[in-house]
Structure formats: C-alpha cells, structure tokens
Design goal:
The structure is a single chain. By secondary structure, the chain is of the alpha/beta class. It has a single domain, classed as TIM Barrel, CATH 3.20.20.70. It has an 8-stranded parallel β-barrel, surrounded by 8 helices. It has a two-stranded antiparallel ribbon with strand order 3-4. Helix 1 links the parallel strand 1 and strand 2. It is globular, with a radius of gyration of 17 Å. The N and C termini lie far apart (about 35 Å). The mean pLDDT is about 95. The protein binds zinc ion. Zinc ion binds next to loops.
Length: about 280
C-alpha cells in the first residue's frame, strides 16, 4: 500500500464568482458549510480565501477570523489561509492574517503571471511574509509556479528564513505560467528537496490528468472551485463533487486518505490544531 494522501480543498479562491460557478461559497457561513461537506468526503486541509460582501477578494483579518471560527465550530480540518498576490498589495496587507496564527498559510517564493494580472512576489515581500510566519509559528505551504521559485525556496531554507522540511505545492496549468504538460510535473518533482512533503494544484483543463498522475506518483493533491470550475464543458462542478472525485481516485490508486489529524503528523503540525 502506498503512502496516505492528504486531500486539500480550495473552495473559493479569488477569481470564481457566482456567475461563473453557482456552487462557489463566498460568505463565511457558506465557506464553513462547504468545507464541512468536503471534510466529510475526505479533505484534510482547507485552503481559504476571504471575500467582501460584493464578492471581491480581501486580505482583511477580521473576515478570515470569522471564517476560522465558523469552520472550527464544525470540524477539525487543517486551516490554511492565502497570502496570495490577488488578495492584497503590500506585505503588511497580505500578511495580516498570519497574526491570527492559523495552522498554515500559503507563500509563493517568486513572481509569475496569472491570466490577467501579475503574481507579484518581490524578494523583500517574500522575506517579510516568511519572517512573520516564523514569528507566529505558522507553517507555510510553499507555492511553486516554476523551477526558479523552487530554487529560491531552497535558497531561503539554507538561509534559515524557511524551516525544513518544507511543504511544497506545485501549481501547474495557470494561463501565463507553467502549463499542465506532464513533463513539467515530472521535472518539478525530480527537483524537489528529498525531505520535503509535496502536493499538486492543477488548474482548469489540466486538473483531470495531473490530479490522477499525482495520486499515482505518491504526491498529495488539491482540488476545489479555486482551481477548476468545471470538469465537463458547460457543467459547473461543486467542491463536494471535486473532493469525491479525488477520494475515488485515491481508492483506485490504493492510497488511503489521511484524516486531518494524520495529515498534521505528516506535515509536522501540532496535534489538535490551533484554536482561536
Ligand atoms: Zn489560493
């Protein structure tokens, strides 16, 4: 039997709107309810973005705090907040949620393009965010959109700015960044530091084949409306359907699904999770 697989759900993201996908959860209540459904289907980590009342991305820690409280009332899923470039501009803005001491936050270690904007992460901003994570004892999920970001993460780890073993998420299929060609996945996986844990986020059309491939290769897998709004053209998909698809895939690949508590042990997080 292969290693247990950690399933992550990214239910909301910054881009999906109700118009694009009627199932996307936007308010703290909707997000918490949807995360509970996904948790019951096998998700061990929730990668969370916050929105304003008019659907816009926000880095406001007050909104994140409400979401955390509502999720915690329902289940013990690992809570991972986004510090992504579309959520805010400055390091202070993007990093404000780190002071809430969630179990994990995302950290991109370089810049790239999204479809319509820049995934802007200058070196100073990366260091400032990483330092705030160290100060608060929050584990980063390192977001890698190409090899240079991976090499930069290894460099930052050597300098002691990032702790090892790192948890590295390989992001493929973003329009304007590295495509979902399986060769790109193999190349990045071969380049990973040996001791790191790793997962794959595959966007849009690449989702079907890369999530299957990652499951077979022994990596951890992310899904959710943030990454894929439809599996079949013109048919919006729900977060629950996406997690159920991965759970079925895991069973077919002989990968037991890690509970949140098992995932904590695999990622070196404190048992029981951080309570607010
Ligand atoms: Zn995200």
């Amino acid at each position: 039997m292969m290693e247990k697989v950690i399933l992550t759900v990214a239910p909301t993201g910054n881009v999906p709107t109700r118009e694009l996908n009627p199932y996307v959860p936007l308010t703290p209540d909707e997000i918490a309810e949807d995360i509970l459904r996904c948790y019951n289907a096998g998700a061990a980590i929730a990668h969370i973005h916050a929105r304003t009342d008019d659907e816009q991305p926000t880095p406001d820690p007050a909104v994140f705090k409400t979401i955390i409280q509502k999720v915690r009332e329902k289940c013990d899923i690992i809570i991972q907040l986004s510090t992504g470039a579309r959520g805010g501009k400055t390091a202070a803005e993007r990093g404000a949620c780190i002071d809430l001491k969630p179990e994990m936050v995302s950290l991109a270690t370089g810049s790239s393009n999204f479809a319509k904007s820049v995934n802007l992460n200058p070196p100073e901003l990366i260091r400032e965010l990483a330092q705030r994570m160290l100060d608060n004892g929050v584990k980063p999920e390192i977001e890698i959109f190409d090899l240079s970001m991976l090499e930069h993460a290894v460099f930052l780890a050597k300098k002691g700015i990032l702790k090892t073993p790192m948890h590295i998420n390989l992001v493929l299929g973003v329009p304007g960044s590295l495509s979902g060609d399986p060769r790109n996945l193999f190349f990045l996986v071969e380049s990973l530091p040996k001791e790191s844990t790793w997962s794959v986020t595959s966007i849009g059309k690449s989702h079907r084949h890369l999530s299957s491939l990652t499951m077979a290769l022994g990596g951890h897998v992310r899904t959710g409306i943030e990454d894929v709004m439809e599996l079949d053209p013109g048919k919006p998909v729900s977060n629950l359907e996406l997690v159920q698809r991965l759970a079925n895939l895991a069973r077919a690949c002989d990968r037991p699904i890690a509970t949140a508590e098992e995932a904590r042990a695999m990622l070196g997080l404190k048992p029981g999770g951080v309570q607010l």
